[in-house]
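Subject: sequence -> structure tokens, single chain

Hey, anyone have a minute? Need the predicted structure for the following. Not urgent.
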Amino acid sequence: MHPDIYKRPLLWCLAALIAGLAFFYRPAPSGQDVFRFLPQKEVTLIGRVESFAVPKKNSQNAVIKVSCVNGQKAEGQIYARLPDFVPQWKDTLEISGRLQQPYGLDLLGNFDWRRYLSSKNIFTEIEGTSVSVVRPAPWPWKLIRSLRADILRVFKNDFPADLASIAGGILLGERGEQDPALYSAFQDSGAIHLLVASGGNVGFVTLLTLAVCSWFGLSRKKMLLLALGVAGVYTLIAGADAPLVRAYFMTICACTGYFLGRNSGVFQGLLVSCFVILIFQPASVFETGFQMSFLATLAIIICLNNYKVPGKWPKTLRFFTQIFLATLSTQLALLPEFTNVFYKVSVTGLISNMLLVPLASVLMGLSFAYYVCSCLHLGWLLHGVTYGALWLFKTLVVYFASFKMSALPVAAWGAGTIIAYYAGLFWVFNLPLKKFARKICLPCLVLVAGAPLAEYFFAPDIQIYLLNEWNKSGALIRTKNGKAFLAGSELDPGKLQASLFKTGVKQPDAILLFTDKPVPPEFSNRFPSTRFIRPFENAWPGDKISFGPVTVKLNWGEHETREGRRWTNEGYSGSVKDNVSYCFDYKDKKACLGAFARFAYSGDKHTPAQRNKTITLKI
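Reply:
Had a minute. Here:
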């Protein structure tokens, strides 16, 4: 890839747009959004179904694009939970029910459903009590959704549930209710991305169509037009979500460039598609799926263009080498995303994907061919082969996930570390361009060394995160020298561990309890090597415990009235009402945590905990 490609104005405009959105934009409902009707207890709305229904235990869920509420014009999307009714894609429905905000739990490092929906510009939910179809979908949409439903029906009827979910996931991105153990195996083996309809599927369908058209001797332009049509239909059948639309738009850009006699390239197609998506859906910049698909595609384009496989190598060796390069570049580009979102990295993914990626492509074509044969009552011709391929795919996934090192728990990276990592990775990806690599070497080295130093320099000496879930509180205390402490045992230890991971720590230096109650077994099991400070058992108010340069002091329990008056629960009675609070000293800085992590303070700074939120005090 020529270095001049990095000088394209569109690339810099896209970078500026992403930076601007990341720093200054926060998803929020417009004035006409259905969100404004939230104060009304019961509403009747009319809207069009914009997603295929997701079956849940007690309902069928779908995204609805709203046109009016209680007879008033409205806009925006809503997440609908509809019991005893299956919404059909592109049907216009009338739904009566209760509006509500999506459940929001802003607990550091844990999944927040409200924030996830807001990244898709959805700010309201409705629990439907009655649903009716106002206007059925036009026949083209009916045909597409019927085809999708029929494909999944054939898989469900002809294969065991686990194999049917694999076939549906690889072909259409619809894995249904998959066995949790098998889903975990896909995660640990690094193959979970193969169960999602992605841009690679669109490219595969396009290339397959071109190959078939070439058998009939069609001209190149006719072949491309037909391939675009088939790929467009596949994009709709597979759900038309962001990665698919982006990939299809890239294909359109490449074909348009061909028609105009210009080689626009996949790189330009990626830039244009991302730019258009962010203009019309700016909240996508916060969506993990958007970030991962953009980074993965960008990494593959740069790596495969710069690291050329010698043409004299055998075709088979070249094929697997390209798969290896694509997998390696993707894993390297997504490493910060995996660590900061999932706190897990698949070590075997690099090897497993060399086998599973080409096998998934075979399965995609084989699954569709099996469906076509089934429609012609000839499914028996391919049933054994398809069954065997699905079984082999599942067996390999489970095998690669069985290694102890298949998935390692990791802590999240800080902003400085991420900047340094991508600076170094950019230099490595462009290393074959020797002149360009020499030119960018110094700036990359400055970022690699300077970004972590700047992050450390500007970090506060003490940070206290007050964690709360439905008035159950806990706290996470971090100091600049890397020490970490958990306080309280009310919250789920798994959620507390996720909070630790988010701050870049795998294990706390100590867990501070507020009463002399025994350590809950789920805590001791999850943190087996961690020191527990249990008041009135191994420490008393007034005691100081040193953790290197950090000193933790136990005090009698400090409490706060609703009016904000602080008082201390002094004296030991031997009852469950006895409690303590903690103060932390580091580099002449001092911060204190109230009993049961209900509040924190340092000098004039005072921070109370808030229900279902993470509140931070920086010293």
